[in-house]
Amino acid sequence: MTMPFYVSPEQVIADKSKFARNNIAKGRALLAMQYADGILIAAENPSNTIRKIAEIYDRIAFGGVGKINEFDQLRQYGVRFADVRGYQYSREDVHARDLANAYGQILGQTFTHDLKPMEVEILVAEVGHENAAGDELYRVTFDGLFVDEHGFCVLPSDAEAVSSKLKESYSDDLSLQDAVKIALKSLEAALPPDRKLTAPDIEAAVLERKARRRAFRRLEDAEMESLFA
Questions:
Q1: 145: domain range?
Q2: Nearest residue to 132 via CA among 32, 59, 35, 208
Q3: Is-above-0.90 flag for pTM?
Q4: In angstroms, rounded to a whole number, what is the distance separating the alpha carbons of residues 111 and 99?
Q5: What is the mean pLDDT, run by run of 10 residues, along the chain of 229 residues?
Q6: Using alpha carbons only, what angle is made at residue 203 by residues 202 and 208, rounded to the nearest 5 degrees?
Q7: What CATH number did the domain enclosing 121 receive?
Q8: Please, are residues 65 and 156 in contact by the beta-carbon 8 Å criterion?
Q9: Phi first, then psi: what are they for 212, rounded to 5°?
C-alpha cells in the first residue's frame, strides 16, 4: 500500500495564492477614483467586444481584472443579486456593501474548497446621492477578502506603479477632465516609457452623482479625446 502524498494546509494556501496573483498580474490594470460629480472607472482595454467595466444596478458599477470568463460570471451573479434584492425589498435597499460581501463569500468559498482559485480581483463602486461622503469603493480579492477603499482604488492590488502614480496625483474635488488625465497618466505608469495610451486604448465609465436613477454612463472615444485635450 502506497502512502498518500502529504502537503501541509499552509503550503496549499501559499501555492493557491501564488498561482492566482501571478495570473492576475499578467492582465492590465483598472482604477477607480472619486471626482467632484461622481466616480470615474478606467482601464486599459483596446477591445471593443470585451468589457471590464459594467453597470450592476441603478447607482452601482462593477470592474474586474484577471480571467475574463470568471469575472464575467461574477458580474452576471451581481446583476441577479441586485435585481432580486431590489424586487424583494426596494431599489433603495440595494447597496454595494452587500454585493461586495456576497462576492467575498463566493471567492472565499472557491479559494478554500476548490482545487483552483478564481483568477480575479473585482471592484464594486456605488455613487452617493448628495456628496462624496456617500460614495463606496470596495476591492474584492481572489481569496474573498474585501476592502473598503477611500478616494481611489487600483486593481490588481500589486499594481504598484499605477497605485503610486495615482496616489501622488489624486486630490479631492477633481473635475472629470482632470480625473481622466490623471487616470491616463496612472495607467501609463505600468507601461514602457516609449508607449502612450490613446482614447481607443481606454475603457472608461462614470457613475454620475446628479443622475436621478441610472447613474452609469460609458465615456466614448470622442468624449475621451476631448477630455484628453
A1: 27-228
A2: 35
A3: yes
A4: 18
A5: 72 92 91 96 90 95 95 95 93 94 96 93 94 92 93 90 93 93 93 88 95 92 87
A6: 125
A7: 3.60.20.10
A8: yes
A9: -75, -35
Could you tell me if 21 and 121 are in contact, meaning their C-beta atoms sit under 8 angstroms apart? no
Is 177 a domain residue? Answer: yes
Residue 199 lies in a domain: yes
217, 59 Cβ separation under 8 angstroms: no
